[in-house]
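=== RUN LOG ===
request id: a7f3
mode: sequence -> structure
chains: 1
length: 200
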Amino acid sequence: MTTRVDDDVIVYGDIGQSLVFIPKTRAIKLAAIHAALWGSKTWGELHARMPEGEYERVLDMTGDDRMAFAEFLEQERKDRPALTAEEARIEYRALELELRDPEPDGPFEAGNVGPISDGDYPDWPAQEMLDWVPPLIQREYGRRGFSNLNGDLLELPSARTGEIVAALQAHGYQCERGDDLVRRASGYGGGNDRALDESR
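=== RESULT ===
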């Protein structure tokens, strides 16, 4: 069952002879996420660049057993009361990332975070179209494709761009061409194109 998206403005573009349509506000957010993930060198930079709430999602992907520094210090001082904060910080930083919060100046590599390297995050616009593009349009113009790792997606042929745009407009959507934004929102153009192609 599909659900109408709140955003009436849809941006669309061509990716590999297949059209991708994305609600514009969603496209802007996804493009910002991809830019932050693939353009940040440290966790602090990632935190500063990510849209609200998305940094926390990435943190959650690193593991459930993470401990904040204050908690680590408190636990360690139970057995070693003379432990200084500086000594504890050195020990804390030596822990695996799955066990601690990343330090702001700690190196960040998107490919080292499982769900990102697997292509499960951020969300995939070609797959999201299955949830909101009206079923009549999906049946008339599209076909359900399949990727090896990430499941089903909607493929819409570029050759029928005018017809598909007209059909979406008939459903009350305003369509704007935006190939660059659609590519960036889909994860292409930010230095991760090869990783995405391999994961999908």
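=== NOTES ===
The two ends are 24 Å apart (CA to CA).
Strands lie at 9-15, 18-23, 143-147, 151-157, 174-177.
=== END ===
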